[in-house]
Write a structure and sequence with these properties.
Layout: E1 2-4, E2 18-27, E3 30-38, E4 56-62, E5 69-77, E6 84-86, E7 92-96, E8 99-108, E9 113-120, E10 128-129, E11 143-146, E12 152-156, E13 194-198, E14 211-213, E15 215-216, E16 234-241, E17 244-250, E18 257-262, E19 269-276, E20 287-291, E21 294-301, E22 312-317
Parallel strand pairs: 15-19
Antiparallel strand pairs: 1-5, 2-3, 3-4, 4-5, 6-8, 7-8, 8-9, 9-10, 11-12, 12-13, 13-14, 16-17, 17-18, 18-19, 20-21, 21-22
The structure holds beta-L-arabinofuranose (FUB).
Residues 20-21, 36, 52, 89-90, 140-141, 158, 234-235, 283, 285 line the site of beta-L-arabinofuranose.
Length: 335
């Protein structure tokens, strides 16, 4: 077990490995971070994300904000996932009924992204993968939210390399084009939204088929394909604040983290604003947690490596207004 000192919020949590897509949770009074584990590979960037060839997951933990960070070691490796071929992208974790559940996207043997689940006795793993992916799942970036009433929901999806466009008709269409504005009338079509399902009590199966939920603009109409500064691209995350449900996400190629709000965990979600201005690097991907009555944003950038698939995870405290508005953060303020 490796102990690393982290005393400043804007410094990466760890630098001995590249980490990205941090899903943070508070379990047993400690902070656990479930990131992707980026590799030092020389793969050219492309719009399908072939440069993200991750093979395993390491869980990080901190006793407190600013406390030393522990790398708890390998929690799951692709070689131990019977159905998966590779590209172990952004994971998440949940706790229910005395068990820890770990969720991850990976390409199956046919090159189609699916969502896998694994279970363990401890928050840091190791996790044992289920023999097959969660039936009915596709695309990437699972985020699990367990509400106060014990009901659990999965949020997922990512366009372009995350393959969400390929499921528009309900079956996988390998030739479906990326959702991109083209300067024509189709740019006013509704943009693809996040996909949601409640989970069964076993936390390993969907209670209902995944359902697309659009994100609405101020006019209560779905954000459009052309709304690239606001529309959903990938990285859904759910948190609850003052009884409202906050869906945060990345806008992808415009590089913002945004959020939308609802009275219900399953929407409808109305666009509210921007959480984070662009970071150095192509992607960022967030989670938001409450710890000791303060709220924190975990995210990543590629400032150290300058390489989009070699990222580092960090966090910042969030400022939230009395009306629940999240103040936009400039990631390099004060640098
Ligand atoms: O880390 C691989 C992919 O990059 C994630 O799944 C996306 O959210 C983006 O961060």
């Amino acid at each position: 077990m490796e102990k690393l000192k982290n005393s400043r919020q804007k410094t990466p949590l760890v630098t001995h490995i590249f980490t990205a897509d941090p899903s943070a949770h508070v379990f047993d009074g400690k902070i656990y971070i479930y990131p992707s584990h980026d590799l030092d590979l020389d793969v050219p960037d492309d719009e399908n994300g072939e440069q993200y060839q991750m093979k395993d997951y390491h869980v990080l933990s901190m006793d407190d904000i600013g406390a030393p960070v522990t790398d708890c070691g390998c929690a799951l490796h692709v070689d131990d996932v019977p159905w998966a071929k590779g590209q172990m992208w952004a994971p998440d974790a949940a706790y229910k009924n005395g068990r820890y559940y770990f969720y991850f996207p990976a390409k199956d043997k046919d090159g189609i992204f699916r969502i896998g689940a694994a279970t363990g006795d401890n928050p840091e793993g190791p996790f044992k993968a289920e023999p097959d992916y969660i039936p009915g799942t596709f695309s990437i970036d699972p985020a699990i939210f367990v509400d106060c009433d014990g009901r659990a929901y999965i949020y997922l999806g990512g366009i372009w390399g995350g393959q969400l466009e390929k499921w528009r008709t309900g079956v996988f269409d390998p030739n479906a084009p990326h959702q991109n504005p083209k300067g024509d009338s189709l740019d006013n079509d509704p943009a693809i939204g996040v996909y949601i399902s409640e989970l069964n009590d076993d936390m390993l199966t969907l209670k209902e088929p995944l359902r697309e939920v659009k994100i609405l603009g101020e006019d209560n109409k779905p954000l459009t394909v052309a709304d690239t500064d606001k529309r959903f691209f990938e990285a859904p995350w759910m948190h609850k604040y003052n009884n409202k449900y906050y869906l945060s996400y990345s806008t992808g190629e415009t590089h913002y983290l945004c959020y939308a709000e609802s009275e219900s965990p399953t929407g409808p979600f109305k666009y509210k604003g921007r959480i984070l201005e662009p970071v150095k690097g192509w992607t960022t991907h967030q989670s938001i947690i409450e710890f000791k009555n303060k709220w924190y944003l975990f995210y990543h950038d590629a400032a150290i490596s300058g390489i989009s698939h070699q990222r580092n995870v960090m966090f910042r405290e969030l400022e939230i207004g009395e009306d629940g508005t999240i103040k936009t953060i400039n990631p390099y303020d004060g640098d």
